[in-house]
Structures are given as C-alpha cells and as structure tokens.
Amino acid sequence: LFGSAALAHAQAYPSKTITMVVPFAAGGPTDTVARLVGQSMGTKLKQQIIIENVGGAGGTIGAARVAKADPDGYTLFLHHIGQSTAPGLYRKLNYNAIDSFEPIGLITDVPMTIVARKDFPAKDIKELLAYVKANKGKVTYANAGVGSASHLCGMLFMTAIGTDLTTVPYKGTGPAMNDLLGGQVDFMCDQTTNTTSQIKGGKIKAYAVTTKSRLASMPDLPTLAESGLPGFEVAVWHGLYAPKGTPKPIIDALTGALQVALKDPVVKQRFADLGTEPVAEAKARPEALRAHLKSEIDRWSAIINKAGVYAD
Ligand code: MLT
C-alpha cells in the first residue's frame, strides 16, 4: 500500500475482525494474556480481535506465519521472551526476529513457578532436588519446545541443580498442564498465568516462585533463593507485533489501543490475580519493545553460545 491509498486504508482501520496469532496452544499462559488484552483492545478499536493458536517449535512456527502475513493491520502477533531466544537457539529460522516485524509495545512480565503433579513425593525444593538426583533420567519435565519460557526455565533449573531431566515437549504449557494434572508428567516450570488457579485449587504441588520477592497473589509460596537456589530469577516479558511494513498510522492506532487495554481495570485485576501487572505506559510503545527485543537477543545469544545448546 502506497501514498493516498495507504492513508485511506489506515483511516478506515479497523473495518473488519483482527486476528492475533499466539504461537502456543490454546488454554496456556500466552493465550491467557492474549485473550485478556485482545478483548480490551477490540473494545477500544470497535472491532473484534480473535485469537489464532499456531503452536509448535517453541513459538517459531507462529512467528514465521506472521512474518509472511499481509502487513495490513489485520494480523497481529503476541509473543513472549521466546522472540529473543529463538535467534540464538535456531540456526535456521525462516524469519528475522527484528526485521520481519513492526513492534507495537511491551505488555507484562510474568513470574514463573516450579510445580509438580499433586502426588509427586517431594514436599519442598530440598526434597525435590534429592529425589531428582536419586532418580536420574526417570523424572519427566514438561515444556513447550526449544526456546519456550518453560524450556528456558527448565534449562536454568537443571544447570542450578546440576542434574539432567527427561524433557517432554508440547505445543504449549496449556496441554502440558493437562498432563501434569493427569499425572502423566512429573513437573515443570511454568508461568503464573497458567499455574495460579491450579496451585490455589490444590490440583498441583507448587515449590517456589522465580522472582526475587514473594508474590502478593501467593504469599505462602517461597522464592527459589529462600529455597536454597539464589540468583535464579526469571520473568517472562511479552510483546505485541505486526508484520513488517504495516503502515505507521495503523501501528499508532494499535499502540493507543494497547495502552488503553493495559489501564483497563478488568485487565489489571486479572493480571494481579495471576501474579503479574501491566508494564508502565512508557514501555507499551514500539521504541521500547524494539530496544528491549534487541538487548534481549544479544543477552540470550551470548548465554546460548556459551552453553552451546542449539535446537537444530
Ligand atoms: C504457552 O503459552 O504455552 C507458554 O508461554 C509456553 C512457554 O513458553 O513455556
């Protein structure tokens, strides 16, 4: 779209339903954030935003799909920290994490929790470590594929405890949670946006939270540092993107709607219930997401190169 045609298109925007692609399965943590934010943005834009789940390969299949979509404002992409780990982990990606997208803004930083099936024998992190060491190779660890948040947290956890676990990949931690509830896998490290209600309902065991301080939403849950693993902190940042070439007036409209959604009392309350909060308005902007993504790609690529772990 060029010149006056582009302007007319942008002025009429949005004139039909918008699709927000989530690169993980439905019912999981990224899906939860996307549905909440998408609904509120849709109200502001006076058009429905529907969620399309394109899971697999740690989020890279969904990213590749959006990179190829028309840059007309009707396909958006909500992804998390995985957008910054994939360039280091995957030597062959058929998109560029920076150049294939127009950033819209940061959304939230979500804490993670170490959780296990309800009848897992260990009662605290100390017992969990002892059990894992005594049962090497037998303890199964669910994750959402290489580059997912659950994969990264699991890698950090295994490094911290000095033991390997048998990983079981899923298209998202939504389905992984179903298997944890059913007892088919032993444990995982997953975002509070997916674990809070199951922990509070007593359906799974929770050992620790990956933030520096305890969460107001689950004050009884100790931090990993309190549990004997200091310096192990993870928070899963989320961002919203459009395909490269989406006209600036459309990006501006989407940035405005994102900022309104992040101030929506319903979104704020739900985030608080799930142990998180929206980012400050200054971060819900294209420049802030662009800068954050670049620095995170540098940071993770260095960590990944040092560890020598690759997806292919
Ligand atoms: C999901 O939505 O399934 C998660 O964000 C997966 C993950 O990164 O662990």
**How do the SSEs run, as a string of H and E?**
HEHEHEHEHEHEHEHEEHHH
Distance between the termini: 37 Å
Shape: globular
What is the mean predicted local confidence, pLDDT?
Answer: 94
User: What characterizes the major β-sheet?
Assistant: 7 strands, mixed
Radius of gyration: 19 Å
Q: Structural class per helix/strand content?
A: alpha/beta
Number of β-strand runs: 9
Question: Which molecules other than protein and nucleic acid are bound?
Answer: D-malate
Enumerate the spans where pLDDT stays under 50 for 5 or more consecutive residues.
Answer: none
User: How much of the polypeptide forms β-strand, as a percent range?
Assistant: 15-25%
Helix content: 40-55%
Alpha plus pi helix count: 11
InterPro entries: BUG, Bug_dom1
Pfam families: TctC
Keywords: Signal
Family: Belongs to the UPF0065 (bug) family.
Gist of the model:
This protein has 11 helices and 9 strands. It has 312 residues and is of the alpha/beta class.
Account of the 3D structure:
This is Tripartite tricarboxylate transporter substrate binding protein BugD. This protein has 312 residues and is of the alpha/beta class. The protein is built from 11 helices and 9 strands. The chain has helices at 3-12, 29-45, 60-67, 82-89, 125-134, 149-161, 173-181, 192-200, 248-261, 265-273, 286-307, and strands at 18-22, 49-53, 75-80, 101-117, 140-143, 166-169, 187-191, 204-209, 235-243. Strands 1, 2, 3, 4, 7, 8 and 9 form a 7-stranded mixed sheet that branches. The longest helix is centred in the last third of the chain and has 22 residues, at 286-307. The radius of gyration is 19 Å and the shape is globular. It starts with a helix and ends in a 5-residue tail after the last helix. The model has no long low-confidence stretch (mean pLDDT 94). The site of D-malate has 15 residues, from helix 2, helix 6 and helix 7.
